[in-house]
Every structure is written in C-alpha cells, then in structure tokens.
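Please review the protein record below. Tell me whether the encoded fold seems credible here:
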Amino acid sequence: MTETGPIFLLGMQRGGTNQLLNALRSHPDTCWPDGELHEVLRPRREVGLAALRGWASYLPVAWRTKDALNPRKAPGPLASRDRDWLKAALSRAARANLPEVRRYRHALAESGLGPFDPSPRSRLLVKLVNYNVGLAPDLARIYPDATFVGLMRDPFGICESMMSRGTSPEAILPLYRYVGETLIKLEERGLPVTIIRLEDMIADFRRVVDDVYGACGLGLEATRGLCLQRKDRITADGRVVGMTKVDTFHDFDSVNAHMRSDVNSAARASLPPDAVRGILQSCGAIMGRFGYAAPMET
C-alpha cells in the first residue's frame, strides 16, 4: 500500500468499473484526466487543432509500439522512451482536466459531500479497460509507488451485457480470459493489486469501497458521501463536455439500492447454449479462480 502514488483501476467494459471509478473520484485526495487511458492518450477520431496535436504526439509511439494503447488488442512491453512519453502525457492530461475536477468537486460540495477544490495531496486516478489492462506492468515500472485495483464480473453477466450491444462471444471470451489472467499475474508478481468482484460491490458497496480506499491509502473519514453517476452535456457535434448533474448519496443503504437497480436495469440478452458452453470451456479456470460457479451449480 502507498499513500502518494497513482491509482489505476483495471477492468472490462460492462464490468462495473464506472461505479467504482466514481467512488474513487468522490475522495478529495484524487484527480484524473478526462477519460480512460486510451481515450486520453490515443486521440479520438475528430478534426481540430487539439486532435492534430494529440496525433502528432502519439503517432511516433504508435509506430514503435504497434499501437500499444489500442484497447482492442493485447499490447507488448514498452521501451524506455515510450514509458517516458506515457508518464509525461498522463501528467499533461491530468493538469488539463483540473477545471473539470473542480467542477466535479463543486457538485459534491453543493450536496454537502466534500470540499470544493482538489486536495493538495491529490493522487492521479486512471481507468484502463479491456486489453489496455496489459499495460499494468509498464505502469508499475513507470510509477513504482502505484496501486492497482482490478474489478471482475461473472462471465455470464459480461457476455449477456456485451452481446446485447452487438459484441460476439468470439470477441468477448478471449478478452475476459486476458483480463482475468493479467490480474492473476499481477498478483503473483507481488504488485500492489487489490482484486474485487462486481457482485460483492452490489451486495455491500460500503465494505468494498472501504476496502479499496484502505488498499489505496485513502483516508476513510475524508469522504462524507459518494457520487456514482456523472451526466455530461453533449454538444451538437457529438462532443461530451462539462457536467450538468450528479447522483449523490449520503447513506450506503441508498447506494446499495442504487447499485442493484443499476445492474438489474442493464440490457440483457439470452445466452444460447453454445455461448454457455463456450464460456465454460474458455473461462472455466478463470471462473474458479474468482469464485464464480457455472449456472447449473448455483
């Protein structure tokens, strides 16, 4: 455990990472760039001076690393100069997003949940999803005092949610296995990683958040409530800017009810028998490692 280094949240899309990310954002000792790692450092497909500058910065790295920040494929290890670039680029992105961090703090303060300004002890907080979790060993070299938090979900729930959005099992299952195996390897290497499950968050969010705060060296007494949703304003050209509303919670009974409702209201898809068999064959070992049972065992 450290009390000074960055905090990296590792997981999959549709795996509950946004709720845990916002719980960490609710702590006054964190600050963050405007998006997930690949969104911040790998330029979006848009036209403009900022995008051109982003591409000018990233293209040499992309060329040398075969687009290592692409969340749709596993990265290879980074060379020293690319690790230096990543650290500098993350620092710039976090500084650039300080106005949004203050706006977030202001929304919390208006609800009586925290101070207006980021703490002078603010820790960098960054989320990595999908294949970007494979960059964790490089991040550990860049930031020897970093802390990692891994979040897993039952593979049947992940498949249902991702398939309902058009993703095929052939794409989901290798990704699930990769994320799970990466977290296990980090743990086996003795890196400071805390692995939790979405299902435990739903059952007792306060306990999980307290455990995560403790593992990250964040004072439990500093946060009087949580913001679990951020609803941004979308401009006519599709850009997401600012913050117009937050859902805040003063008591954890409300948080637990919200979590259960949020997960239960997520789009679901019926898993065909071949998808169930594929999950068991491809992810059986990972399921057992994280305490998940097959449907017929529950």
Observations:
- Strands lie at 7-11, 30-31, 123-129, 147-152, 193-197, 226-234, 240-249.
